[in-house]
Amino acid sequence: MKSLTQNKQQLWLGLLLLVLGSNLMLYRTDFGAEILVSGASNVALGSLLDLVIIAPILFLAWKKKKSIKLFLLLSASGLVLSRVLIPIEYLEPFVAITWVGIAVEVGILALELLLLVTLFRYMPKIIKETKASSLPIIFSFSNAVDRFVQKHQLIHIICAEMLMFYYAVASWRKKPVLQANTVTLHKNSSYIAFQVMLIHAVVIETLGIHWFIHEKSLILSIILLILNIYTVLFLLADIQVVRLNPVLLCEDKFYLSIGLMKRMEIEWDEIEEVYTEAEMIKQKQTKDTIDFVAKDFDEVHPNVILKLKNPKEATLAFGMKKTYSKVAIKFDDLQKFNEALSKYRHE
């Protein structure tokens, strides 16, 4: 059944690429130019239908989504793409229609700029509330932003980048605070050494490849340099998030994070079942399982899996959100977590 679903997804993706590729070939190759000799306007109309209706439907089928809002957004993007792809002499009879897509995209851009203005307008209040909170900054900052600013993917991305730069640059004077209600995930692993090794690899790559490419293409070398600097900052921030944010076990819920890549807030009463046997853990690690396991040089397995009563949202890299039904975790001190679970969870 799983294989059949994957085949369907590959079919939709293949059809989507076929539609886009055939239209690209039509207007950007000599073979397409021969087809356009006669009936160019009708061909342009067919391309419009492909880009505005067919391609969005195939994209939604590929992503297994049913969203009128997303369909309209993709259709507007198709109208804008048609202005770029189709030569104006063929598109001229339908040029008024394409302005609709441009207007929609401009409107969306204006709304996103308004959201950014709102974010920075409320930033003093957000920072004040973040500092006043007893929660780790990686949780309190996001919660404060959601309180003052409308939830939007762009806002999530901007906030994720702000957190990254904070931990990479401004958090080095802070020290980990380990209390009775905290438990670490990385102490019994080589997680930090693993991340430091990656940083060394990126720095060596930057020094070696940058100067080699610099002689060939200045622009490409600068782009690669910026990407490598960003990667180093991200890895440094990731180390700091892991060091400074052990799992926080509160009375109503616990706050779980592993670097910048994953974090969740889980209420004790949302837990349906707990699996700690090694064989059962292997069986329960399925596609809808998110793992909070510190990377190591050797293969590492979780020591507990929590099955949730209902799928729960997790925050991933760059503020992306996704829901999971099971949570796999490797605690350094599983006994401490079990004691909190027994104390706060109500069957």
Automatic annotation (TrEMBL):
<keyword id="KW-1133">Transmembrane helix</keyword>
<dbReference type="GO" id="GO:0004497">
    <property type="term" value="F:monooxygenase activity"/>
</dbReference>
<keyword id="KW-0812">Transmembrane</keyword>
<feature type="transmembrane region" description="Helical">
    <location>
        <begin position="70"/>
        <end position="88"/>
    </location>
</feature>
<feature type="transmembrane region" description="Helical">
    <location>
        <begin position="154"/>
        <end position="172"/>
    </location>
</feature>
<feature type="transmembrane region" description="Helical">
    <location>
        <begin position="35"/>
        <end position="58"/>
    </location>
</feature>
<keyword id="KW-0472">Membrane</keyword>
<feature type="transmembrane region" description="Helical">
    <location>
        <begin position="218"/>
        <end position="237"/>
    </location>
</feature>
<feature type="transmembrane region" description="Helical">
    <location>
        <begin position="12"/>
        <end position="29"/>
    </location>
</feature>
<feature type="transmembrane region" description="Helical">
    <location>
        <begin position="94"/>
        <end position="120"/>
    </location>
</feature>
<keyword id="KW-0503">Monooxygenase</keyword>
<keyword id="KW-0560">Oxidoreductase</keyword>
<feature type="transmembrane region" description="Helical">
    <location>
        <begin position="192"/>
        <end position="213"/>
    </location>
</feature>
<protein>
    <submittedName>
        <fullName>Beta-carotene 15,15'-monooxygenase</fullName>
    </submittedName>
</protein>
